[in-house]
Amino acid sequence: MVKTLSRRFLTAALLAIITSLWCWIITTLHGAWSFGIVEGYLDGGRVPLYPTMPVTYGEFFFQALVSLLITFALAVIWCSFAPQPLRLIGVLVAWLIGFWAGAENISFTFQIDYGTTWAPFEALRALFIHPIVTPFALVMGVLGTYSLTRPFRT
Length: 154
What we know:
Layout: H1 2-38, E1 46-47, E2 50-54, H2 57-63, H3 65-81, H4 87-110, H5 122-128, H6 133-153
Antiparallel strand pairs: 1-2
């Protein structure tokens, strides 16, 4: 019984690690593209609250850590208790929630340059979501999660 539970938790942890790392990478790349390249923060732009600190790729990796933490927590909880056929649904939902949380955190960091009176999700809608790149990132994220976690879901 203990061996079965520890094996189930180990599998859940592996699924959560893979899913959260993939979410972190996709969220960071999308944020770096949206703000770093399109909005020009990587071309000498500064962090809004710290005008002397230049924006680097590391800033996007740091801001997207929220996606890694949330995705890991949701995926490990779901995969620990859900039956094996439902694990895919859990990791995909965890990935989508983590992507949204990371995108919101990145958008919140830079929203002060565009208006401090914005509503909570207005920066995400106006600055992060792109009609071509965002659906591409979502499809890559979901398909990548599906293919990367396949060996641990069976």
